[in-house]
What we know:
Elements lengths: L8 H14 L1 H30 L3 H28 L9 H9 L4 H37 L8 H9 L13 H8 L1 H19 L4 H28 L8 H39 L8
Helix pairs in contact: 1-5, 2-3, 2-5, 3-5, 3-6, 3-8, 7-10, 8-9, 8-10
Amino acid sequence: MTNSTRFSPRRFWQVLRLDLVEGTQSALKHYGSAFLAFLAFLAIPTFVVHHADNPQPEELQEMASMLGSEGFLLTLFFLLVSIGNSFASGRSSLHSRMRQLLLPASTFERFCSALLRHTVLAAVVFVLLFLCADALTATLAQIFSVPYVWSSPHFLATIANPEMGDIDLPLSSAPVLFMARFIPALVYCGLWSTFLLGALLFRSKSFVLTAVILIAGFTLLSLLGTLGLVSLMGPFPHSFNEQSVERVIFISLLLFWLLTLGWIVFCIGYSYRMYARAQVIPRGRFGF
């Protein structure tokens, strides 16, 4: 094992290639399950729900738009599952752990290899799987003479321009518009980093345990935020004009951005620290 902080692109690609070859069987199982989930997600509404109702072309377009948007959310969920279980494979295999320790690569290179496989490459694979599932559904619909509109254009359009939803905020200044526009990406990065930390923090069932903690945390924060807003606006029900409301929104968004970015940095940094420690301590609380 080389220096734990030095990064070499050549060694990094060697580690990545070896990890891809060694994890082929596990990847086929996980991606195969994702493909079947995409196929069921697209085929069930086509062959069961709308086929029985004899839908009109407008209804087919609406269904395709809905499936494309919800398929994007399903892809994000699969990515969270992927990063949440990124360090689970190989924990029970002593041979795999010894191979990792004997690799002529730094700890940082192995850590980056795992992140790339379970984030960037996984995202590309999930997008391709959705497109393949859509093509297979369209082929089956044509064989059985079932009306079908491709969901892939709506799916790709949602990836290119994800929307917040029907949220009406009195936005006017450029900083507020910018922060509000990228809230979905910021929230997802926060979730991604949290599941990354959970993958290294918990010995088994890391995704489930992290999700339970997140749900409890979001519930508590929502209650505290609601109580804080009520206590703030209760004594001053008529003192907030449009400018004051925009100022409150700006401060709230700025605070949310700073806290979320700080949490992302903490999760990634502490995850790397735990991963580096696990390389030195091959057996222990981390299950390696």
